[in-house]
Design a protein that fits this description.
By secondary structure, the chain is an alpha/beta fold. It has six helices and twelve strands.
């Protein structure tokens, strides 16, 4: 697919074409900001951290903000095909964390209590409960576990491709092979993003380049 010419100006430039950058570009456009340019240095979108992740989906976090984000994210993922037209092979097969020390058990008991307070039905399992449900596990050094049946997995590449396609439908211009080489500022504000495909004047940059952000 031939790429459009890099525009000379954009309201927002998003750096990084993984799941975070693709989602950001899509949701900006969905909220009415259509003059968005997405830049990815690799040949394909989602080749960085996104392409190397296992695609895990879970509610089992230790802070309220992450739990609430997980609730909203799962709702989006469950309706992803309807919203973007892209299948993501989502499977809510459950997550089981195995715990081997009293300190871990105490921390996860606190985590589960916090998750329950947000309406997330995680559970603490004894070794007997684990053995009943996963009989092939070696539990010699395990004292318990934390389980949530609503956790699972999805296809990271599908999520990225869905967001990119839906963002483009809303007017976002997304580019591969566009390595950012510099960012100019004037009076303390961003003015220009320089790339291997050209330069873009903008006042707003979202840096979603993962490890390359540094």
């Amino acid at each position: 697919m031939n790429q459009p010419t890099l525009p000379s100006h954009a309201e927002v430039v998003v750096i990084g074409g993984g799941v975070m950058g693709a989602s950001t570009a899509y949701h900006l456009a969905k909220r009415g900001i259509h003059d968005v340019v997405l830049l990815e240095r690799e040949e394909f979108f989602g080749q960085g951290s996104t392409g190397r992740c296992a695609g895990g989906i879970r509610h089992q976090f230790s802070t309220s903000i992450n739990i609430e984000l997980s609730i909203k994210s799962l709702a989006m993922l469950q309706n992803f095909q309807q919203e973007t037209g892209q299948t993501i092979d989502i499977k809510l097969c459950g997550y089981l964390f195995l715990l081997s020390t009293p300190a871990e058990m105490q921390q996860f008991e606190q985590n589960v209590a916090l998750q329950n307070s947000h309406g997330v039905m995680s559970e603490i399992w004894t070794t007997e409960q684990i053995a009943q449900r996963v009989p092939l596990l070696n539990l010699d050094d395990i004292i318990g576990g934390s389980y949530n049946a609503g956790d699972g997995i999805a296809d990271p590449s599908g999520v990225v491709n869905g967001y990119i396609a839906a963002a483009r439908e809303l007017g976002v211009k997304a580019f591969n092979g566009a390595t950012v080489t510099g960012i100019d500022t004037q009076a303390g504000a961003i003015s220009t993003v320089h790339t291997t495909l050209g330069s873009i004047e903008t006042k707003t940059v979202v840096n979603a380049a993962g490890p390359w952000s540094a």
